[in-house]
Each structure stands twice: as C-alpha cells, then as structure tokens.
Specification:
Layout (H helix, E strand, L loop, with lengths): L10 E5 L2 H4 L12 H5 L18 H15 L3 E5 L2 H4 L9 H16 L3 E7 L5 H4 L9 H16 L5 E6 L1 H9 L11 H25 L5 E5 L5 E2 L4 H22 L6 H6 L10 H5 L5 E5 L5 E4 L7 E3 L15 H15 L10 E5 L17 H19 L4 E7 L18 E3 L6 E3 L1 H10 L6
Parallel strand pairs: 1-2, 1-11, 2-3, 3-4, 4-5, 5-7, 6-8, 7-10, 10-11
Antiparallel strand pairs: 8-9, 12-13
Bound molecules: 5-hydroxymethyl-3,4-dihydroxypiperidine (IFM).
5-hydroxymethyl-3,4-dihydroxypiperidine binds next to loops.
Length: about 450
C-alpha cells in the first residue's frame, strides 16, 4: 500500500469565501454587493436562493474554528468582504467590519491556526458595479484604497495574503457568460475586466510592499490547462488557444511575460492596454495559489468565436457534472512549475493548492452520519498526485480543501454541497462528514492510499 508522504511543514488548510459562508448580509454595517443584487434577478440563482444567512459564520465562527482545530487543520483561507470594510466601495471605512475580521483572526490564532486572507472573492460593492465594476479602469483606484485598509487594519494578524480569487471567473463568468454577478454578456467588457483585474492585482502587490509587512502575498488562479482531444495538429493548436484565452491571459502578464502571443498577434485590440500597464501588473509575488477541480479535452471548431470548443469526457463526474481528472492536476502543476521558473529572478515560485474538492449528493444516515465515500476517493486521488509531483520537483507547499462547510455555491444556491462538514441549512447544525475524518488522519500522517 502506498503511503502519502508530506513534509511536517506542509500547510494543510480548509477554504471558504465571505459571501458563501458569512451571512449577516444586513448586519454590522455591511453595504450591498453585486451578489445581493444578482440573486434577486429571477432565474439567476437556483431556487432564488442568496447569501443572506448562508452558514452564518459571522456569528458561528468560534464553532467553525473549534472544528478545524479538532480535525488538525493548520490554516484557514477565508475572504474579506469588501462591502463590510468599505460599504460604498470607496471612502468611509466601517469599524464593525474591521472588528469582525480581527475577532476571526484572533480566534484562529488562539487555536493555533494560521490565517490566509483573500482580499477579493467576488463580493464587489454594488456602488462600484453601478460605475461599470471591473469593466471600468477606475476600479483599480478603489481596489488600491481597499487593499491598503486591509493591510493597515489586519496586517498584524494575517499570515498569508491572496489578492484576488480566480480572475477567470471574475471576468468571464461575470461579464462574458453572465452566469455570475453582475450577469453581463459582452465580449469587449469581459476583456476590459481581464485587464483591470490583472492591474488591480499588480497595484495591490506594489502597495503591499510599501507597508513593510512581511507575510507572503500571492494570487489564486484557476488555470484551465486543457488537453487536446486528439493528436490531430488542429486539435493540439485548439488546446493551446484555449489555454491562452482561459489561463495565460491572466498568468503571463502577472509573471512578467506580457499577454500571450496568440492573443497579441491574432487579436491585437482585445486588451485595452496602456503604456506602462505591463510593468504595473508584473509585481514579484511570493507564491502562486492554484484552484483545481477538472480538466477538459479541446478540439478545433471553425464556428466558435476563438475557434476551439470543449469535447465530451468519459470519466466519472462529480455532482457538478465535472469529470474527475487527477491526471489533469499533475499536468497542470508540472506546467505551472515550468512556466513560473525564473520569474522575478527567482529559481522557483512556491505553489499552494488553494482549492480542491468536489460536490457530492451527500446523504445523512438515520444515525446522523455522512459517509461521503465518493468525496474521499476524489481527495485521495488528487492528494496522491500532490505527493507524487513533489517528488518530481514541483514546489508544492500546501493544500486547502474546498470547502470547510457546505455553503452558497453561487448560481447553484445551496443545491451543491462541497463541504467536508455538512450544514443543515434549516438549523445550521454542523456535522463532520467521513471526508473530514479522512483528512484528519491524512494530516496526522496515517492515511494510506
Ligand atoms: O465555490 C467555488 C469557489 O467560490 C471558487 N472556486 C470554485 C468553487 C466551486 O465551484
């Protein structure tokens, strides 16, 4: 039986995001955000659900932290809600919002848990969206102001900073496909959002360096590094084009490589680039966060806007319908290691899996247990890849499971459960699933695969 070997300092964590777990949407001086608005749009979110109560972590964080500690987790990745800190997006700071995150971090530290804060995980203050949101270049000024407040007010309590979660989803799901807030479908706006998110990240990192704070700062991407559906040359090319639009467009400029050649050559006007922007974006980062769920096969398609399309998969799928592709994680981590080598003059940039996990149709037994064997299998397969790539030289330093709790899964509302802890959304009772015990044993060094 193979043993999963991870070093003693491997950072084991769980992850959540403010809108998905906090609730208390109308408490503590929080302003409105784009998900409050979007979830009121008929048909936008499954069953008209919203994050008004969610898991009520705003009030129940001590219980959640006690559970994390009991399971042996060493780090908690949470996000800071911009509308709690600066309710109007710019200007007046809300002391109650600051006080909440200070309490959260202090409780984590009291329990020996390292704090990993994401500055932006999609809850944009509505007043900023009213000015165009991520499509308006002025948002970078508002983000700079907000990030500085986070550094000043929470810098003594945060052990690791992530500027932005999944720029792909911010720009494309929000402004191209319209399935996430603010629900727009406009190619030109989406490309402006791509560039403004990249700019906001660079500005936030360069502001951070001025503070003198020493905790590492990075960004979390959800790279889509598809494989070619066949070995035909046109499909291999399609996979590369897909990677350029979905992944390299975010990663390359941040690593100082500029926008990918495929885009600058073939679609020269899509990015609203101004002189000096690439230098602003390319700030040295201390680590790369990777969110991985699945990988898709791509093929050429002359009729598609950028001439590629995803093909059907054969693998078992999760409750999201996403194929289970641990081999894709291996390909992706090796690729990321390769392309980030030497960036900013560093031999290597440490990688963290900042999200990995799956939605399952969990059943609570009459005895109140959740035997989520499918999730355990999913985690085992992906963790085996992690252990293996470390041996191959990938500088992987930690793994955060998505998610600590069942929570508000965006457009799917509460219908999809990603938690290792079950939440009864009527009573808000938390119950660790078998996968939580599997991770407990893995962290303690006893889980074999
Ligand atoms: O729930 C999301 C999370 O907010 C961002 N990454 C993907 C997760 C699962 O869809």
């Amino acid at each position: 039986m193979a043993k999963m070997d991870f070093s003693a300092d491997f950072l084991w964590g769980t992850a959540t995001a403010s809108y998905q777990v906090e609730g208390a949407a109308y408490e503590g001086g929080r302003g409105p955000c784009i998900w409050d608005t979007f979830s009121r749009r008929p048909g936008a979110v499954y069953a008209g659900e919203n994050g008004n109560v969610a898991c009520d972590q705003y009030h129940r964080y001590p219980e959640d932290i006690a559970l994390m500690a009991e399971l042996g987790f060493k780090s908690y990745r949470f996000s800071i809600a911009w509308p709690r800190i600066i309710p109007e997006g710019r200007g007046k700071v809300n002391p109650e919002g600051i006080a909440y995150y200070r309490r959260l971090c202090e409780e984590l530290r009291k329990n020996g848990i390292h704090t990993c804060a994401t500055i932006y995980h999609w809850d944009l203050p509505q007043p900023l969206q009213d000015e165009g949101g991520w499509t308006n270049r002025n948002i970078t000024g508002a983000f700079k102001e907000y990030a500085n407040v986070c550094y000043k007010e929470l810098g003594d309590l945060v052990d690791m900073w992530i500027t932005i979660n999944e720029p792909f989803c911010v720009a494309y799901l929000g402004y191209l496909w319209g399935v996430h807030a603010p629900g727009e479908r406009d190619q030109k706006k989406a490309m402006a959002a791509v560039h403004n998110v990249n700019m906001a990240h660079g500005i936030a990192v360069s502001e951070y360096r001025k503070t003198g704070l020493k905790a590492p700062i990075g960004i979390t991407w959800n790279p889509n590094t598809p494989r070619a559906a066949t070995s035909r040359e046109e499909d291999k090319k399609a996979a590369l084009i897909s990677r350029a639009f979905n992944t390299e467009i975010f990663i390359f400029p941040c690593l100082g490589k500029g926008y990918p050649e495929h885009i600058t050559k073939n679609f020269p006007d899509v990015i609203p680039l101004k002189e000096g922007d690439l230098e602003i974006i390319a700030q040295p980062i201390d680590f790369i966060g990777v969110n991985f769920y699945t990988e898709s096969p791509e093929a050429a398609d002359e009729k598609a806007p950028y001439k590629y399309t995803s093909k059907p998969s054969w693998q078992d799928t999760t409750a999201m319908g996403w194929p289970i592709t641990p081999a894709g994680l291996e390909r992706q981590l090796l690729w990321l290691t390769e392309i980030s080598k030497g960036a900013f003059g560093k031999a290597e940039i440490p990688l963290y899996i900042t999200e990995n996990g799956c939605a399952c149709d969990d059943i609570v037994t009459p005895a109140g247990r959740i035997h989520d064997k499918e999730r355990i299998k999913y985690l085992q397969k992906h963790l085996a890849v992690c252990a293996d790539v470390i041996k191959k030289g990938v500088p992987l330093k930690g793994y955060y499971v998505w998610s600590l709790l069942d929570n508000f899964e965006w457009a799917y509302g509460y219908a999809k459960r990603f938690g290792i802890i079950h939440v009864d959304f009527k009573t808000l009772k938390r119950t660790p699933k078998d996968s939580a015990y599997f991770l407990r044993d893995t962290i303690a060094g006893f889980a074999d695969i």
